[in-house]
Amino acid sequence: MRYAETGFSLEVDLTRGNIERVETDPEWTQLYLGGLGTNAKILWDRVPPEVDPLSPENLLVFGTGLLCGTPATGANRTIVSTFSPQTRLMAYSMMGGFWAPELKFAGYDRVIVRGRSPGLVYLWIHNDKVEIRDAGHLHGKGALETAERIREELKEPKAQVLAIGLAGENRVFYASIEHARSSASRGGIGAVMGSKGLKAIAVRGTKDINMARPAEFFQLCQQVLDYIPKRAQDPVKGVPPILAGIGSPQEMAIHDEKWHTTGFAWGHARRRRKDFWTPERAVEWKQTQDQAVERLISCYNCPMKCGGIVTHPELPTRKYMMKCYSKLTYVMAAMVDDLDFGFRIAGKAQEYGFDGYTTPQVMAFAIELYEAGILTDADMPGFPERNDERFFYLLDKIAHREGIGDVLAEGVYWAARKIGKGAEAYDHNTTKKHEQMPIKLGMLNPIFFLMYATGEKISITQIEGQIPQAPLPKDYREEFVKDWVHLPTGKEARFKKFILEWGDEDKRFPFWPPMDLVCELVDWMETMHYIDDCTGICAGLSSFPIKPPYHIHNLPLFLSHATGIDIDEETLWTISRRVRQLVRAVNVRRGLRRKDERPPQDHWKKRFPELEAQLLDQYYAFKGWNREGIPTRKSLENLKLDFVAEDLIRRGILTGGGGTPSEATATEAAHK
Amino acid sequence: MAEKKKKTVKVIKIDADKCNGCRACEAVCSAFHATPKYSSTNPARSRIRVVCEPLKNIYLPVYAGEYTPAECSGRDKYVIDGKQYSECDFCRASCPSRDLFKEPDSGLPLKCDMCEDDPDLEEPLCVQVCLSDALVYEEREEEVEEQESPEELEIGLEELAKKYGKQKILDAVSRIYGNREN
Ligand code: SF4
Ligand code: SF4
Ligand code: SF4
Q1: ipTM score here?
Q2: Domain A8-204 maps to which CATH number in 1.10.10.10, 3.90.550.10, 3.60.9.10, 1.20.1250.20?
């Protein structure tokens, strides 16, 4: 019997209309766990680097984390992996909600979609019965509306549905996949789903997921549940409210938006408004939010209630579900001070199936170009005066790929190059061709420098965590480190010392902390995220907040007791490293090199090119990568990734001797 | 025949307004009733079900009650606070009209047993995992007339046997009670 996982993948070929249930190799669980790890292995094995992301040959993998469907709190992530039309690299976005556990209960660990359907279809998975069904009548329908209609026509109110909206159907490069209160948004995976002619996947499962060591596993779950209310009583001090607790940022519950609205940049990631948050504004915004949010809701098996049901009279569904920061992204990018605008446009954008981070930035970029005269009324006939109306105008145009919307649908990087006339200069907030958080700060932060530069999850919130974002108040530091059980074995003293000293006279960025410590901290944060992406545990309970319920000491136990495979801290660390290395190799094979590893130029005012180069050198070495950021033969072989080393050597990306970069042979997949 | 007796009445107070739709209650209930205990999870086997209709803001935890051999003749509708519910949404019965509160494979009826265990749990598990306090456990002493109703039991068993066959019932009984004793 397989424990924690089902041991089966569902292979769907939409070109031929073929469906197969395929047993998976149990060794993969030991090597890659599941979720992202297995997805990366599948993409490495089956999608050659020349494959165009929007072609039928690209795979779209809906993976579940290894712990999804077990009683572990918050283990509910669906990890969607494919190649991004925007970055041309591996895209992996995750979503919470209910879909992944339901798929496990239906008897599958993942759905692997390939090919392209001649007409729009959806997939209906009901335990052993799997059908490809016509979705012609759902063409152009909103993502939530689609889910509702499918549940109705199947007469299965308990089916969990993920779907794309019009943006995905029209292959907008930042289209999301939406499900209930969650979405997998980054990297344009909705466009890939659209290119396959796949509108939705509905799933209903009524089978068991088995535990290897039930009593032990259940005890661990109890400990996590006991910790959550205790942690709520004990918020981290000296940090903004949004970072004091656990869960995804509690945007639906928290009213105090001083930190976001005064600390993050407005418009097209241009300027901070340090005096925005006034007492009057606080009252007004609270009123708006209380009126809009009807109930706080959770993902499967999690008490954190990070989402909200939001009332929206203009939508066919009358309501939608919101989570996290999309409450503010549109408001701030549009420079509209009214929170109600945020709730209205986010609802519409979700129905279209748009990424709530990238979309507002693209629209703000378009407004900048218009104001600079690069885009004119000829490009945008009837472009309104007011920014709120302009945002709705642009949203429609992009979703329909109509007029200028067709160009903007490819994101800031590609649009700037298509528009020309100096538009490139306005592409100031992308890394690896993808829009970043609208943050503009003063002094270079060496830790975040490395994360922005080298992170392949593209989104900083999917890499950061564990440590505060600024020094803690001096008189609180001792208390903070006292019960900090989360530190990896062997790093306790070093990481505690870092917190105790950080902010002191000569202990400030950018030349402090020492580079080896910077590397270790970055590596720790990233490792925890990679573990979550394999287990399916929500980052909000694990890798993202400070002092979360899950950490490097209890996660190995969770995995061991669930699967019956003995995994200790070191083994888990090694698996995470293997997955990290594999993801890097997948991207290297598609052309990723050192030159791509740059945070947005104006992310910090004070930059230190020499220091930054040294940081990259040191971190690459630490990760087992050569100067170009390519994993060395030795580091690959140490992680049982010999097959990767062989392939990279065969392609001339690594030399047979083991690791000298050969820049000339890099096969950058050019987008024309 | 009836005599007065002191009895502890176990009450779960359900505050549907506090429910966040996480279905932790369903997950844990199915795990608790697995054999061996906690060895599997499958919300479809749970003895509590949460009716979730986010787009109507309807969240309603319902416990599994008695098996019924026949469905109701009518299907009334309730409107509460402007939200429309079907009568069935509130119903605890394992009823032929729906797949709720039945073992997914055998179709045998499921019923909440308040997490009967030895030793007794401090609180039923669904209540323990509901950190939102949508489910709160209370105990109350009550004087009740103890009624023996063997006939009812027999009628029920016969109905079940008609529906599922004698062997299935015997299997279920030995599976459920066989485990209790070890
Ligand atoms: S912490 Fe929030 S986002 Fe994460 S699983 Fe729980 S409810 Fe979902
Ligand atoms: S555990 Fe509580 S909050 Fe969660 S679904 Fe059940 S009743 Fe609702
Ligand atoms: S009280 Fe126990 S048996 Fe009844 S629904 Fe809750 S967990 Fe299940």
Answers
A1: 0.94
A2: 3.60.9.10
